[in-house]
From TrEMBL:
Any coiled-coil regions, as ranges: none
Domain of life: Bacteria
Biological process annotations from GO: D-ribose metabolic process; pentose-phosphate shunt, non-oxidative branch
Protein name: Ribose-5-phosphate isomerase A
Pfam families named in the record: Rib_5-P_isom_A
Length: 218
């Protein structure tokens, strides 16, 4: 079984959490599978709030109504992938660059179900370069502050987020205290969003593995 098959397993298992209303939908290759499965039960939901233009397009192509978060109110469920998860379900996200909208929709949802292949579970966050969305004029300033925190920021060139900002991918961080690191990076002027999801971690992690799905609950 390859990684994509494992992503599919996790994505399909998340359908069991869908129980009507408006649901939040994340971004990425695992979520793309989830959207395809969601389309098979679309009559069960009123619609979806999307975390990116890419997911919006995919849902629209399936005839899933996409709603504005301001009109939707608090959501019962958010389903999204991750680049890494620790055992407390603190995450690194933003490999696809959609971290800001993902963090907003996760924060607006009662339950966050994270779907991933088994390789994403780690003991300590940080092997995956940490994405940080930054206001363009602050790029160098933020990079210098990230170096002071021990990281090696690399500008994701030729990439602009859905919000018109840039991404710094921070290498060589060992994130021993995810909440503290999230707060410290959030406090740097010019940072829009840091891809640590620890203040609002996932509630449920569904991993696709060779042996089937494995579910971890916070
Ligand atoms: C996008 C994300 C994705 O959830 C993350 O990159 C995982 O992607 P994939 O499911 O393709 O492995 O945070 O901003």
């Amino acid at each position: 079984m390859n990684a994509d098959d494992m992503k599919k397993l996790a994505a399909k298992a998340a359908l069991e959490y869908v129980d009507g209303g408006i649901i939040g939908v994340g971004t990425g290759s695992t979520v793309n599978h989830f959207i395809d499965y969601l389309a098979t039960i679309k009559s069960k939901i009123d619609g979806a709030v999307s975390s990116s233009e890419v997911s919006t397009e995919r849902m629209k192509s399936h005839g899933i109504p996409v709603m504005d978060l301001n009109a939707a109110g608090e959501l019962e469920l958010y389903v999204d992938g991750a680049d890494e998860s620790d055992h407390n379900l603190a995450l690194i996200k933003g490999g696809g660059g959609a971290l800001t909208r993902e963090k907003i929709v996760a924060g607006a949802s009662k339950k966050f179900v994270c779907i991933a292949d088994g390789s994403k579970l780690v003991d300590i966050l940080g092997r995956f370069p940490l994405p940080v969305e930054v206001i363009p004029m602050a790029r160098s300033h933020v990079a210098r502050q990230l170096v002071k925190l021990g990281g090696t920021p690399v500008w994701r060139e030729d990439f602009i987020t859905d919000n018109g900002n840039v991404i710094l991918d921070v290498h060589n961080l060992e994130i021993m205290k995810p909440i503290e690191m999230e707060q410290r990076i959030n406090n740097i002027a010019g940072v829009v969003t840091v891809g640590i999801f620890a203040l609002r971690p996932a509630d449920v992690l569904i991993l696709g593995t060779e042996e089937g799905t494995k579910t971890i609950t916070a």
